[in-house]
Amino acid sequence: MTLGLILGGVITTALSWRWVLFINVPIGLFAVLIAPRYLAESPRRTGRFDAAGALTSMSGLVAVAFALVRTAEHGWRDPAALAALTAGIVLLVAFVLIESRTRQPIMPLRLFADRTRAGAFATLLLIPMVTMSMQFFIVQFLQQVLNYSPLQAGLAFLPMAIGMLLTAQNASRAIAKFSGKTVALTGVALLTTGVAWLVPITATTGYAAGIAGPLLLTGAGLGLVVVPFNIAIMSTVDPAESGAAAGVLQTAMLTGASLGIAVLSAVYASTIKDNSGSATQPTVHAIADGMGTAFTVSLTFAVAALLITLLVVKRTGPR
């Protein structure tokens, strides 16, 4: 994830930002070619595809994300945004009702019956809301306020990559020595500290004092969070439902990333419009103020993840 940001800066500088999209094609084709060679096929089971569940969940999430993104430009009272938000909520409620009655749902509700697993799902929704929006805003701060080039902005994320590499490769050993909850709690605490560091950001904030440290802490926290929560989810489900559990896990993380950027972009746009009177040509001080407000909201998401990890997730002994 972090190396992608660095590579994106290299590609944008050397070629064009459009190549950032094209580079996914050969990577995807390569994955398709090697997957059959290295991934064992899971046991096949007969069943019916939950088309109603797939359509309502997809449509509901798209509608909610669209509504949040539209509010960034048109405000919270925009009729189209309100209509989309209402439709999204109705569709997601319908999705839950469908899943409770379908014989083979794409998201079995019993996956959330286990307290620790439910807490892990919730945290893996909140964490990307924090981290992806942080990356989104920091890239803009580096280029719009500190006048970094795309290459410099990409390389500026090296502390995050270093922090993640240092902790992720040791997370499994730490879980075996302590517990999954202890490791996850440490990771979320580091991540929360990193976000809190960014809240007082201003137009005079420098990279070394105000950006590198939060990136290092966030990367280190992420490396400790993902492993124990993946284990908490995947090691406690019936093998027949491992695919569904993995699907919900990935959907939670990707949905969190999308909704986090959408929510905080709306907060950011609203703040800079109030401070400068324009959301399209803001001053550097208005940009920094808007990002500080967005990071404050992001901090509430991080604190919520911290509380869920502390109060909901159960402590399990080493395995």
Task: Explain how this protein is built.
The protein is mainly alpha-helical. 77% of the residues lie in helices and 0% in strands. The protein has 13 helices and no strands. Helix 8 (158-177) runs antiparallel to helix 9 (180-198), helix 9 packs antiparallel against helix 11 (212-234) and helix 9 (180-198) packs antiparallel against helix 13 (284-311). The model has no long low-confidence stretch (mean pLDDT 87).
Quickly describe the structure.
Helix content is 77%, strand content 0%. It is mainly α and 319 residues long.
Question: Keyphrases for this structure?
Answer:
single chain; 319 residues; mainly alpha; Growth Hormone, Chain: A; 13 helices; 0% strand
- What's the level 1 CATH class of the largest domain? Mainly Alpha
Query: How is the biggest beta sheet arranged?
Result: none
Whole-angstrom Rg: 21 Å
User: Which regions are unreliable across 5 or more consecutive residues at pLDDT < 50?
Assistant: none
Q: Number of helical runs?
A: 13
Order of helices and strands: HHHHHHHHHHHHH
Strand content: under 5%
> Helicity, in percent?
over 70%
* CATH architecture grouping of the largest domain: Up-down Bundle
Q: How many beta-strand elements?
A: 0
Structural class: mainly alpha
Q: Terminal Cα separation, in Å?
A: 29 Å
Give the helices and strands, then pairings.
Blueprint: H1 2-14, H2 18-22, H3 24-38, H4 51-74, H5 79-101, H6 115-145, H7 150-155, H8 158-177, H9 180-198, H10 207-210, H11 212-234, H12 242-276, H13 284-311
